[in-house]
Design a protein that fits this description.
61% helix; 2 domains; Alpha-Beta Plaits; mainly alpha; 5 strands; two-stranded antiparallel sheet; disordered N terminus
C-alpha cells in the first residue's frame, strides 16, 4: 500500500511549480520588463492551482481514512451484531447500503407486560430484578426464534415482537412474510403461550413484603 506522500507528492510539486515560476520570471526580466507581469501572474495562477490540488487531496485522504475506520469498527462489532440482530439485519448493516423503506402487510404484534413490575421495582434490589428479567428475556428470545418472529424492542418490562416481517426461511419453504395471516396468528399465540410457561418456569422475584413477581 502506497503512503499519502507517495500517492500525492504535493510538497514536491509545489516546490517545482514555485521554482519554475521564479525561473520564468527571471527569464521575463532578461527578455523584457513587459513580460515580467505576465510571469508573476502565471506564478500566482500556478500556485493557486497547486493549493486547490492540495486541499482536494487532503479531503480525499481524510474521507478515505474515516471510511476505513468505520469499516474496521463495523468488523469489530460484528460479533455483537450477531448476538443482537437477526441475520437479515446483520447483512443489511454490514453492506452499508442506503436504507430503503419497507412495507409489511398484516403483521401480528405481541406485547408482553410483567404484572406488578413497577411496584416491585420499589421493593426489590436492581441486581435481583435485572437477573430475573435477563433469565426471562433470554428464554423469550430462544422461543421467538423457534416461532419465527422478530423482536422489535424491550421497553422496561415490556417485550414487543412481530410476526410476518421476516423473509428468511428454510430451503423449499415459503417465506414467513408470504404465509397466510392465520399462520402468523397461530405462531403469535404459540409464542404468547410459551411466554406464560416461561414465567412459570423461571423462579420469580420475592419482594420484601413476601409477594412474588410473576
Amino acid at each position: 500500500t502506497l503512503s499519502a506522500e507517495q500517492l500525492f507528492p504535493l510538497p514536491w510539486l509545489a516546490g517545482v511549480s514555485f521554482a519554475l515560476s521564479i525561473g520564468a520570471g527571471l527569464v521575463a526580466i532578461v527578455l523584457g520588463q513587459g513580460r515580467y507581469h505576465l510571469a508573476v501572474a502565471a506564478a500566482v495562477i500556478t500556485l493557486a492551482a497547486v493549493a486547490r490540488m492540495t486541499d482536494k487531496a487532503r479531503t480525499h485522504l481524510c474521507f478515505a481514512a474515516r471510511s476505513q475506520a468505520l469499516t474496521d469498527a463495523l468488523a469489530a462489532k460484528q460479533p455483537l451484531l450477531q448476538r443482537l440482530l437477526p441475520q437479515n439485519a446483520q447483512r443489511f448493516l454490514l453492506s452499508a447500503a442506503p436504507p430503503v423503506p419497507t412495507t409489511h402487510r398484516q403483521v401480528v404484534l405481541v406485547r408482553m407486560d410483567v404484572q406488578g413490575f413497577t411496584a416491585a421495582c420499589t421493593r426489590v434490589t436492581p441486581a435481583a430484578m435485572m437477573t430475573w428479567l435477563n433469565a426471562v428475556y433470554s428464554r423469550a428470545d430462544e422461543l421467538l426464534v423457534i416461532a419465527g418472529g422478530y423482536k422489535i424492542d424491550v421497553l422496561g418490562d415490556a417485550y414487543v415482537a412481530a410476526f410476518g416481517t421476516l423473509c428468511d426461511s428454510e430451503p423449499g419453504e415459503k417465506p414467513v412474510a408470504e404465509k397466510p395471516l392465520s399462520r402468523r396468528v397461530c405462531a403469535a399465540r404459540s409464542f404468547a403461550e410459551g411466554l406464560h410457561a416461561i414465567m412459570d418456569e423461571v423462579p420469580g422475584v420475592t419482594t420484601s413484603a413476601g409477594h412474588q413477581l410473576t
